[in-house]
What does this fold into?
Amino acid sequence: MPVRIVQSKQNARLKELRKVLASPPRDSAPIRSPSRGGLVLAGPVLKGSAPAGSVLAGIEGPNLLEEALRARIRVSCVFVAQGFESLLAPLHLPPETEVLLLPRDLLDSALTTETPQPIAALVEIPDWTWAHLLGGQNNPSPLVLVLAGLQDPGNLGTILRSAEAFGATGILTLPGTVSPWNPKAMRASAGSVFRLPQLAASAINSIDRLRQAGLRIFTTTAGAAEPVNLVDLSCPVALLIGNEGNGVPKPLSAMADGALTIPCPGPVESLNAAVAASVLLYEASRQRALRAGDTTSLRGGPR
It folds into this structure.
């Protein structure tokens, strides 16, 4: 595990960390540039430190770094503030991971949190595919969330955590949705971002691929719609979750097979997007457990 001391803001690795934290990638796959007609990477790449075509994200703090290692995410480079070298001991970093030791104020200058942590890293985001998103051939009943214009990274991170907890097979993020690799989203996900498959795609491509895979597509609304507990969510299903203020766009809702609502006896017009997604996911998980004759999977509490 090579260790180098860094003293300059112009260090290439530090500049890369600053860049990916400020502009997180959307996806690990190449995306087509409409202006150039060619293929461009969805995020920056560190030459010489990751396989060609890989995309890197920046993470901050020992807990998130531990989660990344536990999920077998490739850690390209670790940044540690001087005086905090002890944080490295429990991490068991691979021998090829580069470690940079630098003054605390220099590391703080690259980080985005109000109270920066003394350790950060560049990690290679997983190369997920549609097969991963749909759960593979051994999953006859995929459960996918489609996020349409969700903008709050805390909401997205919470949705990622709930999706993993309740057995979703993956997340699709449509244009206008915040990146799952946004630092705040990653922290809110508590590590689920490293394990739950996610893809960025257009609305048309998403709907077409989901239909080809045999999923029923439901939009969500606070208005007149079928109560979620009266709709079969144990079959292959995709749930559309919209923008915090405007909900699911009407053209996208029009492509759905039906509309769901969460019955609320209290005098509240609508639920927070992350809360609504979590309730829908729980209901889907409950129905699937009952269908499988397994009620033990729903006996756990918050962690």
